[in-house]
Amino acid sequence: MIVFQLIAVPLAALLFLRSAVKFLRGKGHRWVAALTAAIWLAAGITILQPEVTNTVARLLGIGRGADLVLYVLALSFLVALVYFYHKVRRLNSDLTEIVRTLAIRDALNGGSRGLVNTPKDPPAERSGMKREAAESPSDAE
Fold it and tell me: Distance between CA 10 and CA 34 in Å, rounded?
């Protein structure tokens, strides 16, 4: 075993166990925990036995295991990109709906209250400080 394998395989095993425990306990989305566990298991196996990627690549008609890994990573990146794009669009839509609802509610209640109640006193007076004490020495000249 090389040094990388001595470090990476136990790490992948720990992360696999963590995901498997999350799956078995039912915390969060079970399919995410199962997918994460499968990814860590595959990572551990391919780090421990790199020739596995060559065998799988040949079965799929791809020349080398490194090419297979690159294709899987590229496809995973594209899937993640589309997923997060749609998630951001949905969050934007939800936020727009909330702001519209609040604006309409405030307009129907006789004016805008705003989301933050800003006091009329300056910060120095609110904290008990006097304006003279808050002035710098250069202001006193």
Answer: 19
Q: Would you say 65 and 49 are in contact if contact means Cβ atoms under 8 Å apart?
A: no
* Closest of 52, 56, 40, 53 to residue 8, by C-alpha: 40
Between CA 69 and CA 52 the distance in angstroms is 11
CB atoms within 10 A of CB 134: 13
Closest CA to 102 of 93, 111, 91: 111
CB burial readout 39-56, b (16+ within 10 A) else e: ebbbbbebbeeeeebbeb
Burial of 107 (0-12, 13-18, 19+ CB in 10 A): exposed
Q: What is the pLDDT of residues 55-108, one digit of tens each?
A: 999 999 999 999 999 999 999 999 999 999 999 999 999 999 999 999 999 989
Both tokens of 79, joined, read 């899937």
Q: Is the pTM of this model over 0.90?
A: no
